[in-house]
Automatic annotation (TrEMBL):
Name of this protein: DUF159-domain-containing protein
Organism: Lentinula aff. detonsa
Family: Belongs to the SOS response-associated peptidase family.
UniProt keywords, alphabetically: Covalent protein-DNA linkage, DNA damage, DNA-binding, Hydrolase, Lyase, Protease
Compositional bias segments (type: Polar residues): 292-301
GO BP field: protein-DNA covalent cross-linking repair; proteolysis
Entry keyword annotation includes DNA damage: yes
InterPro entries noted in UniProt: SRAP, SRAP-like
Residue ranges, annotated region (Disordered): 273-301
GO molecular function annotations of the record: lyase activity; peptidase activity; single-stranded DNA binding
UniProt KW DNA damage keyword: yes
Signal peptide: none
């Protein structure tokens, strides 16, 4: 699955980086709703790319018409977690942050009405996945080695909810079976659109139909695994609302990572050594006091003895040395 991703880039940088994929969006609808985040969680807003008709008003959010050849791409900030167009209220218990590729291709459920004409591309720098290790869940970050943006296959929808004064736009991320290289981490992964051909086909909704080519795109795992890097990141990323640049860095590169761990170990060792030294000093002081007390007792006992003994103590014999 894909339950968290990162997009900590300013709008102008996102636009510039999209040129690596030959994607040129003339307009960014609801740009003001986007907040750059290292920790993008469900029900927060993020930009997607979708197709629009040139003949229709972009601001109206009009859907592409069948057979239209005059099209352009637009970016739009949407809420993560798809709310179907027939909804009267936003059901926050609905788990629609991901859409399984198998269900989309089979045409079942809510995806059937979206797969033909409401496809989009979700923009991110990389995504987080949690490795289950017993009762522990260890977060990892997966991103392109090239440093380019990662583009994910998505679906979107819009709805006018009851008692709402605006149209709600939402999206979901398409997932597929994990590739062999990342199956150790999780059995699912997002569908990554890595080629120009895949991007063009996914964004081309002019026919408003689902095709075998599209089914192939979402069913195959990412085939360029060697161009991705995966590493463990801090557990703090699991808490929604937390933000830190360290979330997308390997633990070994964090200022508070390995160095902090060794520092804590050194501090702990210093405490142990100090405690040990203090204990030894205390034992020595106790020993000295005990020895002093023993001497006092001996002297007292001797003083209570014969006069000869006292004389010996007061006038110790000195061995004469021949000159």
């Amino acid at each position: 699955m894909c339950g968290r991703f990162s997009l900590r880039m300013e709008p102008q940088d996102i636009r510039q980086n999209l040129e690596d994929y030959n994607l040129h969006a003339n307009e960014w609808i609801h740009q003001d709703q986007f907040v750059p985040r290292y920790n993008v969680a469900p029900r927060t807003h993020a930009p997607v790319i979708r197709r629009l008709d040139l003949g229709n008003s972009i601001r109206s959010g009009a859907e592409p018409s069948e057979g239209s050849s005059s099209t352009q791409l637009s970016m739009q900030t949407m809420k993560w977690g798809l709310v179907p167009h027939w909804s009267k209220y936003e059901d926050k218990t609905l788990n629609t942050i991901n859409a399984r590729s198998e269900n989309i291709s089979s045409g079942g459920g809510m995806w059937n009405s979206l797969r033909g004409r409401k496809r989009c591309v979700v923009i991110c720098q990389g995504y987080y996945e949690w490795l289950s290790k017993g009762k522990e869940k260890i977060p990892h970050f997966i991103k392109p080695k090239s440093g380019h943006l990662m583009l994910l296959a998505g679906l979107y929808d819009s709805v006018d909810l009851q008692d709402s004064t605006y149209t709600l736009w939402t999206f979901t991320i398409v997932t597929t079976a994990a590739s062999n290289e990342f199956s150790w981490l999780h059995d699912r992964q997002p569908v990554i659109l890595s080629t120009q051909e895949d991007l063009d086909q996914w964004l081309d909704t002019s026919s408003q139909r689902w095709s075998e080519d599209l089914a192939q795109i979402v069913s195959r795992a990412y085939t360029k695994d060697s161009s991705l890097k995966c590493y463990q990141v801090p557990k703090e990323v699991g808490k929604i609302g937390t933000e830190s640049s360290s979330f997308i860095l390997p633990i070994s590169e964090r200022k508070d990572g390995i160095e902090a761990m060794f520092s804590k170990q050194r501090q702990a060792l210093a405490v142990v050594n100090k405690s040990s030294s203090t204990s030894m000093a205390k034992r020595k002081r106790n020993s000295d006091r005990a020895s002093s007390k023993s001497t006092e007792i001996t002297l007292t006992q001797t003083a209570e003895g014969s006069d000869d003994d006292i004389k010996i103590l007061e006038h110790p014999s000195v061995k004469k040395t021949k000159l």
